[in-house]
């Protein structure tokens, strides 16, 4: 049996590559070593800025309270981009270390929460962030802190804002 490769195959492959390149997220357009001004020119001034060890900074562009994305750019002391990523996602949340991280660690890693609450019987302050699980399900990720500000547990739950059956429960 002979397989015939169509002359259109290279065109189809090139078209598919162009289509996928068009799907690049805003935070994927920057390379390590670029000047901080490149991302600020495109994204605007960051809404949150946090100090990092070694004199660097974390610049953040949150879409909260209604959005599910926070873009974080780490820049070094020379104002060069180290990395840029979307931090409100499971692989980032799962880095939080129970019993070790503090409110400051959560703040620097994820920015300001969309909501805070306090459960007096548990003696826990809770910070909650909106995010998309697998880019499909609207979820909330919560961090529970003890009275000393140490992270004691985390929890994920459906976002009632996008779940009509649960809106009246909260």
What would you say this structure looks like, in words?
The chain has 170 residues and is of the alpha+beta class. The chain has 4 helices and 8 strands, in the order H-H-E-E-E-E-H-H-E-E-E-E. The longest helix has 13 residues, at 9-21. It is globular and about 50 Å long. Residues 11-22 have low confidence and may be disordered.
SSE topology sketch:
Elements: H1 9-21, H2 36-43, E1 48-51, E2 57-62, E3 70-75, E4 81-86, H3 90-93, H4 103-110, E5 115-119, E6 124-133, E7 137-145, E8 151-158
CATH topology of the largest domain: Beta-lactamase Inhibitory Protein, Chain:B, domain 1
Discrete helix count? 4
What structural class results from the helix and strand content? alpha+beta
Strand order of the largest sheet: 1-2-3-4
User: Quick one: CATH class of the largest domain?
Assistant: Alpha Beta
Low-confidence residue ranges: 11-22
* Termini gap: 64 Å
Order of helices and strands: HHEEEEHHEEEE
Shape: globular
Largest sheet: 4 strands, antiparallel
Please indicate the count of domains: 2
Q: Compute the gyration radius: what is it?
A: 20 Å
Give the helix level as a range of percent: 10-25%
In terms of DSSP E residues, the strand content is 25-35%
Quantity of strands, as a count: 8
* Mean pLDDT across every amino acid position: 87
The second-level CATH architecture of the largest domain is 2-Layer Sandwich
């Amino acid at each position: 049996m002979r397989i015939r490769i169509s002359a259109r195959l290279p065109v189809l492959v090139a078209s598919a590559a162009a289509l996928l390149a068009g799907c690049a997220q805003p935070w994927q357009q920057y390379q390590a070593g670029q000047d901080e001004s490149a991302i600020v020119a495109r994204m605007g001034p960051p809404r949150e800025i946090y100090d990092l060890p070694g004199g660097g900074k974390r610049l953040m562009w949150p879409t909260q309270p209604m959005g599910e994305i926070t873009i974080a750019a780490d820049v070094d002391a020379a104002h060069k981009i180290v990395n840029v990523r979307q931090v409100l996602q499971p692989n980032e949340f799962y880095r939080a270390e129970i019993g070790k991280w503090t409110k400051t660690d959560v703040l620097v890693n994820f920015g300001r929460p969309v909501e805070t609450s306090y459960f007096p019987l548990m003696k826990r302050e809770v910070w909650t962030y909106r995010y998309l699980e697998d880019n499909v399900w609207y979820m909330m990720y919560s961090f529970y802190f003890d009275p000393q500000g140490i992270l004691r547990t985390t929890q994920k739950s459906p976002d009632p804002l996008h779940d009509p059956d649960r809106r009246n429960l909260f």
